[in-house]
Structures are given as C-alpha cells and as structure tokens.
Amino acid sequence: MDNGRIASVLAQEYLVIGGQQRNARSLGEREEGWYKFQRGVMLSARPEPLAVLQLLDYVSPPEVCAPDEPAILFKSGTVVGDRLYACTQTEVLVYQLPDLTLVEYASAPCFNDVHHVHPTPHGSLLVAISGLDGVVDVSHSGEVLQEWSTMGGTIWDRFSPDVDYRRIASTKPHQSHPNQVFYIDDEPWVTRFEQRDAVSLRDPKRRIAIDIERVHDGAVVDRHVYFTTVNGHIVVANVDTLVVEDIFDINPLYPDDVLLGWCRGIHVDGDIAWVGFSRLRLTAVRENLSWVRNRFRRHLATRIACINLRTYAVIAEIDVQAHGLDAVFSIHPFPTH
Q1: Number of domains making up the chain
Q2: SS3 call for 301
Q3: Are strands 51-58 and 92-96 parallel, antiparallel or unpaired?
Q4: Across 36-63, average pLDDT
Q5: Helix, strand or coil for residue 167?
Q6: Measured distance CA(258)–CA(279) in Å, rounded
C-alpha cells in the first residue's frame, strides 16, 4: 500500500458505535453488576486531521428495559448502502446515513442481550441474541420468522417462550454467547464466543475454528472473514475452505507492560484494519479475563487503532473514551455526504 493510499485511509471519517458506562471502574474492583452502561453512543472519528464528534446518544425506552439500572448501549451494527442497522440490548434500530435519521424500529420479547443485527437476503433481519444463546430471523416489525439455538436443539429447551426477556436484566452465564452474524454468500453464520468458533446456522457441522481465545466480529472481505479475539488477535479465515490462513497478534506492537484492552470491532480495507479496544472493566465471569496477567501495569483508554497488516505496524490511534465512549462494538466508514 503506497503512501497516497494510506493518506486516503487516514483522511476518511469512521463511525464508531458503543456505549457509555454509568461509573468507570478499573480492573480488580469488586462489583457484581459491572455491566452498567447508561446510553448508546455513536461518534464520527477522523485520524488526519484529528477530529472526533459525538453524533448521537440514545437511551432505550423503559418499557423495553429491565426495571432497575438496565444496561443501555449500542452493540455491533451493520452498514449496507445508506442504512445503518444498529441494536441495543433489546432493540433493533435502522438509521439513514449520513444524518442518522431513525427510519425503522423493532423489538421483540425474546430480545435479551442482543449483540448484532444484519439484514438478510430476503429482506428481514438476522439478530444474534446472546442472552438466549440463539439467533432469530425477524421482520422489520419484530415478528419472529425463524429461530436457531447455538447450542443445538431449540432456544425454548432452556428458556420459556412466555417470558418478556427484555425485562430480565441478565440470563448469565451464557453457554455460547453468540455475538456476530454474517453471510458467506447466502449462508448465514454466527460466531460463538465461548466455543471460540463460527458455525453455519444451516449446518452447524460447517465450522471455522478460531481457538486462540474468545471471539468477536466476522467481517467478510474478498472471500475471507476477519475475526477478533478478546486478547488482541486478528484471525483471517478462507470462506471457501473454512480454514484459518492468517493470525495477526497485535500485542507485540505495544510495550510489554501495556494491557491493550478488550479487543472487539473491526473494519478491513485492503491491508489496513481498524480495530477497537475497550478499556477493561471487572467482569462477573472471571474466566473471561483469564488471559490478563499481573505484569500489565498500564491500561490504555478505549480507542480505535489503525493497523497496517502488511508492514505490521500501528499507524494511527484515536482515543474515543475522552468523548464519552467507554466500550467499542463496531467501526464503519462514515459517508459524510
């Protein structure tokens, strides 16, 4: 990639999606209810010249939330054309770009810890529901058209179809925690956080094994799918062979005593990858942080980093925590006109 191409990438504006915490708490503090986000936040961020602007903050209506201190934030979104498909814990929101006008809204009783939404080839919405260890295909009005358990059987083998799960604060521990849906051609796939893999919803025997650590994302680019692992790896798999072909460990690009943060959110443009890092907080599920070691003394702010995968170098970083975004879930090129 020549200098002109890099300059073009760094002059681009990016849409960064996530949430703002009620109380920022450092790793090691003792609190069971660590997951206390108070609003969804969207920023525009440009590296050169540096510019960060809060575009939207959003609070879910009380009727689709748990009654006491609900977690409110944006999870992973999908951009197709001039539409941003976004989600909160309990809602799907479709915004028109670039002005972020809300054009569609859907919610359903099965929405608990919704993690990602992606439009389907037949015009509906594919939704990853971490809280029920499942995926649903819903209409734009929220009618459930099809359901998949990511643990085999059906969603309702473990959960009751008569409960409004939007009003339930948490169903943890999750058995698989599906967190990203994507398509290989017209075949729907889902990442499974706990199993460290991605599987086809049509045929779960079709599997991409990531294995390094717990996994997020699933960005399909040029017959490859890009995943992130929470401990700072980009994993690249071939969509035709379902075999991992490249692994980029981001950790050596930083000093040994630096804790990168929770790695999640990726946008790939040729040899350039923008990756999100969220400053670590205490999690009630301690094993999720088993990869954290005492040698880390410096915790970096929540940020997005631009990595040249060909030269294996960090070429830009943008601090988003200073602008009210404590956790990054997805990164997208932002069309400004």
Answers
A1: 1
A2: coil
A3: unpaired
A4: 94
A5: helix
A6: 11
